[in-house]
Amino acid sequence: MPRATNKVASHHKRIRFLKLAKGYWGRRKNVWTIAKNNIEKSLSHAYVGRKLKKRSFRSLWIVRINAAARINGTTYSKLMNNLKKHNVSINRKVLAYFAMERPEVFKSIVDKVSI
Questions:
Q1: What is the mean pLDDT, run by run of 10 residues, along the chain of 115 residues?
Q2: Domain locations in the chain?
Q3: How many angstroms separate the CA atoms of 109 and 48, rounded?
Q4: C-alpha 24: how far from its chain's center?
Q5: Alpha carbon of residue 23 to chain centroid
Q6: Which helix (H) or strand (E) holds 36?
Q7: pTM score, two decimals?
Q8: Around Cβ 102, how many Cβ atoms within 10 Å?
Q9: CB–CB of 52/60 below 8 Å?
């Protein structure tokens, strides 16, 4: 008796992979083995990129907060320490937004925790 390989599922898997390869150049978009290798590599790069995006945004927020804090006469580390001491739970994303878009609100936060 011959071995069953479930051709229907294998075929649909290939179709699904080739749909992911849409827009690739040359044989990358229509040859199964080449498309599969490139898709697996691109998916791994996408996974890593999602982690790097979070890291780079956090560093951007820190730079913005530090710049605004120095304008208001303190540093980033002192500001964050004072925020923790005064139990002000405001995240870096919001602080960076205030630093860039609403400097008067940021100044009031700095003045409140610097006392």
A1: 84 92 91 93 95 97 96 94 92 95 94 86
A2: 7-114
A3: 35
A4: 24
A5: 24
A6: helix 32-71
A7: 0.75
A8: 12
A9: no
